[in-house]
Amino acid sequence: MPPRPMNAAPSPRVSTLQTRLHRFLHTVVLPQESAINTALRLGSSNPEPSAGAQLALIRQKAQLAGLWNLFLPTSPRASQGLSHWEFAPMIEAMGHIAWATELFNCAQPDAGNMQLLDSYASEALKDAWLEPLLRAETRSAWAAAEPDAALHQPDTLQTHATREGAHWLLNGHKTWVQGLLDPRAACLLVLCRTDAEAALHRQFSVLLVPIGTDGVHIGRQLHGWGTAQSVLAEVRFDGVRVPESHVIGQPGQGLEMLQARQRIVGLHEALWSLGAAERALGLLIARLQTRRIGEQLAVHHPVWQQRIARTRTGLDTTRMLARRSAWQMDQNDSHLPLQELAMLQSLALPLALDAVQWSIVAHEADALDDSLPLAGLAAQLRLMQQLTPPIETLHAQIAQGELLR
């Protein structure tokens, strides 16, 4: 049977949701963007209460508007959830504002964690930990990366857990832990080795660890370019006792879950990057239409026209790849070939970084003003760059996929 053709037209329900999301962003969020940017910047290490209150109020409005948990498809716990294809243009729209995904409860690391919990966790764990996340009453953290290991080489990971009666005894050191320092953070999802004698792909599991558990030690805070939205941390686990029932899915499914999460988060971040690039391009063109280079408007200068053309070409072509990837994930139970994910990540993030940087150059000192989103977008993109495999690793994955054809 030939593959089902990709239908580009959104359903009436999705079209209505898209219209409502765009209206909400323009009428509710954008008028407060500058004030919230200021509050977040001033409270970069400890966000000001005023920023938290403003964001909480907007979240309430978004929830009442039915713009909530849109990323979680085919789940009875998120009735508004959309397919990957349907969600694609919406997270791209959220990329216009550095912190917009949080307003709709679609922010990382929670979105990736909630999808793992929804797909793999027991009903008891879903009731206790997923439901508060879906209501944004709590937040979560993802602990996979380690200081002396690489996630694409899982045999180098050292964090491990051993059974001891009705508990797991967890020991190890994780870094680049996102979400851990949020005041609402309640739990960590920890990738760890649970059976060193099994085949490599069955050695790892994911444990849900409540943050207040004895032996969980939050270490160095890693401030990402001075923004409150980019704070990470290191964490050590010293003899942490985790109930046996807190394993997500089955023991040995850890690498499967890591790959599933990487596909989902990779797609979301690529789409978000396209939204950031689109916003930066619009601001760039507006600035160049008022700035002069000698007697000539900057918008007519060949260098700037070349940058505009490169950004527009990159945006439209990468968007087509991203939408195709989203559609493929819908057809294949959220599976996406590693080669295609690598292609998407190798295109979207560098494109957005260039677009934002060119817009910053054009705006000069004004780019740092809180009335513009450029500083926040740049910080968020740089953080994403640190959490994404290096471009050389992505290119190697693409080449290996091609050689295996």
Key terms:
10 strands, 405 residues, globular, Butyryl-CoA Dehydrogenase, subunit A, domain 3, alpha+beta, four-stranded antiparallel beta sheet, four-stranded mixed beta sheet, 3 domains, 49% helix, Butyryl-CoA Dehydrogenase, subunit A, domain 2, Butyryl-Coa Dehydrogenase, subunit A, domain 1
Describe this structure in words.
The protein is of the alpha+beta class and 405 residues long. It has three domains: 12-107, Acyl-CoA dehydrogenase/oxidase, N-terminal domain (Butyryl-Coa Dehydrogenase, subunit A, domain 1); 139-253, Beta Barrel (Butyryl-CoA Dehydrogenase, subunit A, domain 2), CATH 2.40.110.10; 255-403, Up-down Bundle (Butyryl-CoA Dehydrogenase, subunit A, domain 3). Helix content is 49%, strand content 16%. It has helices at residues 12-29, 33-42, 49-64, 84-94, 100-103, 110-120, 123-134, 254-288, 302-331, 338-363, 374-387, 391-403, and strands at 139-143, 160-164, 167-178, 185-193, 204-210, 216-223, 231-243, 247-248, 292-293, 296-297. The strands form three sheets. Strands 1-4-5-8 form a four-stranded mixed beta sheet. The chain has a four-stranded antiparallel beta sheet with strand order 2-3-7-6, with no helix packed on it. Strands 9-10 form a two-stranded antiparallel sheet. A hairpin with a 2-residue loop joins strand 2 (160-164) and strand 3. Helix 8 runs parallel beside helix 10. The longest helix is centred in the last third of the chain and has 35 residues, at 254-288. The chain is globular. The two termini are 21 Å apart.
